[in-house]
Design brief:
Number of strands: 7
Helix content: 25-40%
CATH class: Alpha Beta
Distance between the termini: 65 Å
Structural class: alpha+beta
CATH superfamily: Histidine kinase-like ATPase, C-terminal domain
Number of domains: 1
Strand order of the largest sheet: 5-4-3-6-2-1-7
Strand content: 25-35%
Length: about 210
């Protein structure tokens, strides 16, 4: 009897990605907030102090809304990005180390970024900058990477990262069947969502949502 693997069709992965958030900006933000929280948890396990800040920016652009999430946690190296995004569904660092975190951008966060428009991660770790875009093209999940580059003063200023940290961003575009909620709707959903209850009540976290002009 011969045993063999049955590979997944790329179109199946695309359907799974789209089903993960169903074009819902709130669901996407939930995944990204939890990933930032996980990153702070890893710092705490190592006894490294931090400010616990998670910033969320909401910016309206016609019918579209651009979302940006920034933290001052671990940041990601080029190898971290390779580990997190070279395969879909592979175990990431948190799972492999048997910790109570989802690892560096687990499947949920990949779904969040890829299923929206212009999903991007910009990150600095150990004074090196890396950036990754993840998107669906020709019914396949694809990505582009840049870096590592020296984290210059201009790069740090552009992304608002003083030391180590990560910025995740995406656009909710109604013309692509993506929900672009009002600012007050986002605020209410995040403030009261059960998945964020522990984060919102954690004195070591500070989640700030603001509307950019």
């Amino acid at each position: 009897m011969e045993k063999f693997n049955i590979p997944a069709d790329p179109r199946l992965i695309t359907r799974l990605v789209k089903a993960g958030t169903q074009g819902d900006a709130v669901r996407a933000l939930l995944e990204l907030i939890n990933n930032s929280d996980d990153s702070y948890k890893r710092l705490e396990e190592k006894g490294i102090s931090h400010d616990g800040l998670i910033e969320l920016q909401y910016q309206k652009d016609g019918r579209r809304v651009q979302f940006l999430l920034r933290d001052n946690a671990e940041g990601m190296s080029y190898n971290d990005l390779l580990e997190a995004f070279s395969k879909y569904g592979a175990p990431t660092s948190g799972y492999k180390e048997d910790k109570l975190v989802t690892g560096f951008f687990g499947t949920g966060a990949k779904n969040a970024l890829a299923s929206m428009t212009d999903g991007k991660i910009s990150t600095i770790k150990d004074n090196l900058f890396c950036e990754l875009n993840i998107f669906i093209e020709d019914h396949c999940l694809k990505g582009t990477r840049e870096g590592p580059l020296q984290a210059t003063k201009n790069l740090r200023s552009r992304y608002g990262i003083e030391n180590n940290g990560t910025v995740a961003s995406f656009i909710a575009d109604p013309s692509k069947n993506q929900q672009a909620p009002r600012f007050d709707t986002i605020f209410e959903c995040l403030a009261n969502h059960w998945r964020l209850r522990k984060i919102m009540t954690n004195p070591q976290r500070k989640v700030i949502l603001y509307c950019a002009p």
